[in-house]
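To: structure desk
From: M.T.
Subject: fold request, one chain
Message: Could you run this one when you get a chance? Sequence is below, nothing fancy, just the single chain.
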Amino acid sequence: MVQAFLIKYAEIGIKGKNRYIFENALRDRVSERLMRCEGQFRVEKEQGRIYVQAESSFDYDEVMEALSHVFGIAHICPVVLVEDKTFSNVCRELVAHMKEELGEKPFTFKVFAKRSDKKYPMESPEICVEAGAYILDHMPNAKVDVHHPEVSVYVEIRHRAYVYVSGIKGPGGMPVGTSGRAMLLLSGGIDSPVAGYMMAKRGVQIEAVYFHAPPYTSERAKQKVVDLARLVSEYAGEIKLHVVNFTDIQLYIYDKCPHDELTILMRRYMMRIAETIAKERDCLSLITGESVGQVASQTMQSLAATDAVCTMPVFRPVIAFDKNEIIEIAEKINTFETSIQPFEDCCTIFVAKHPVTKPDIQKMESSEKKLMEKIDEMVEKAIAEREVIEVKPE
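Reply: Done. Structure tokens follow.
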């Protein structure tokens, strides 16, 4: 019976003298995620490994699902702990575990051994040979294939023995929180939730800002964004969602500026507001879901025009993806069906029939001078009166 889970990591293993920082962060993220599962668990580091040991009854599928959402995990291996590590007892427990996991279907296998206890009377190559022979004697459906095995069988000898067969692939990446904090401009579309997910996978802690424009955008549109933030939080952890009322600013720009420049001008003020909130929240960068050439506001010239108002870096992780590639990730992380709900966001309300696709930054700045009478006060008010929603994974 499975009593523990071995957490294998990949990229963390090359971090040198700082590796313990990432290991500790991964251990903490695993502990936090398991707190929402039924049962009691102990998560501990041991000689380049992280183990989750169950200390009560638990739901196996629930635990595997929880661990599959923790960035930094390369593989999750259900493990049987063997306190009596005499070799015959280890082999008995190994075969019992293999029968439980693999059943009666034919399979090929290869044994891998790791002997951290150097006082153990058998060395790793001998363990591999003898354990393989024991499996062949007790499992007639098994055959050895050292080149392309269908099943990898592992025996680790430490202060006790750990036996397991191939686990499932984890989400990879780096533990959330090891790469600083960033502010995601989260709309109700397909792209921005994927962008947030991808940056969280690189260890970035995510906060988000959403620009709401009542009555032109409904409460259902706002709830849609909250729902998207919650789905992203299943991977990224708790997200603070800053909801900014953008209506007055949009209407003021619409009234004062050339309509073909509306989208870019609005985006420039969104970036300014997002950056102000980001600095207040000690974020190091902004994140958007823009992809080159996808719409008029995402040409190279348009992106340059929006970036020109920012002093902090703007990360665009889906910048070179086509729509189908973005949708594929959205489906994987379960945000796609929510994103396509037909509720307008503020970016689509005041779109010109023929928006400028190659904006000139100097012309943008000239247009913005028409807003100087009120715009700073309106921006300050929008930031001060924003709503902050703490979005947690379910």
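Reply (cont.): The mean pLDDT is 92. Let me know if you need anything else for the meeting.
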